[in-house]
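ingest -> fold -> write
write: protein_1
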Amino acid sequence: MTPGSGPEPIIRGRITYLRAAERDDVPLFVRWINDRRTSRYLTARSPLSQPLEERWFDRMVEAQGSGSWFFVICRLDDDRPIGTTGLFGLDLTAGTAGLGVMLGAPDDTGQGYGSDAMAALVDFGFGSLRLQRIWLDVYDFNERARRVYERLGFVHEGTLRHAAFRDGRHIDIHRMAVLDDEWQSPLAASRGGA
């Protein structure tokens, strides 16, 4: 696709954009989640089948915009889907939501796609949804992700000790969050401060 020839994405970063998930994406989700290099950082415990993911997809579509927002992360340069991200546990009274992110293929990690997509999603959460606090959980062994979240402005709020069982041992989960008045969007400069 020639740059500028397609529609302008509604939620975009510098190198990624977020779009709604389509049923045609389900086989890609199954492939990503069934790759241990990806799933070890998720709550998935066993292989996932296409019918199970289709049932999840139906529930996700039903909750879109009310209890959660779920998006596919795509590269701006070629529209290739590379992961998913979303807000869940949306509490519009308190102004809070959890954030989840997954880059599907290990080759797409370490290139800035995840942090770019997260920045676009946090901008959406604080700007369009008027949230006050966005939180996430990260496993203690995922130091790389934790550093990315800290660079984005997420602050460690606490540790859930031995809260998960992974790779034959109990592990801690770290809760991190960012508040609206703390958020300094890394995308604002590229959009003229908007």
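write: protein_2
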Amino acid sequence: MTFADNKTPQLWQSFILLRQTITNSLTSNLYSLTVYPPLFNFSFSDMNTAIEKWAAMEVEDFTAMPEALEKFLLPGGIYAVFNYKGSSNDPTIFEYIFGDWLPHSSEYVLDDRPHFEILGDKYRNNDPNSEELIYIPIQPKHK
């Protein structure tokens, strides 16, 4: 999908319908993952660049996975974690992360790995009191 043609609501609707068929989940947390193409412009000025979105849960293994679902293996590495409280439709947290914190306040640069949010018990879609954890893949500026 693209940001201009955002199909996230449809993705989650289809995933939620299949969620009950996942019998070996490790937690009740949901994961919203995004795989950006290399050299993606994180000013989000190009709304037509294709991205890959996933709705997911963490499972013990893939042996009991329903046929309608695909597996995703999240690569390890260092992540900056932001405890965000606010509406999932408010882009200011990402403006802060990519426009201020990462380039000016951190000792890190963006790494080319998936980004994700953990949507736990306090997550409420589009609610200003919602809470989620935002994971941004990073690596030290100087290796």
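write: annotation protein_2
The beta strands are 30-35, 52-56, 78-85, 108-110, 115-119, 131-140.
The helical segments are 8-19, 92-105.
pipeline exit 0
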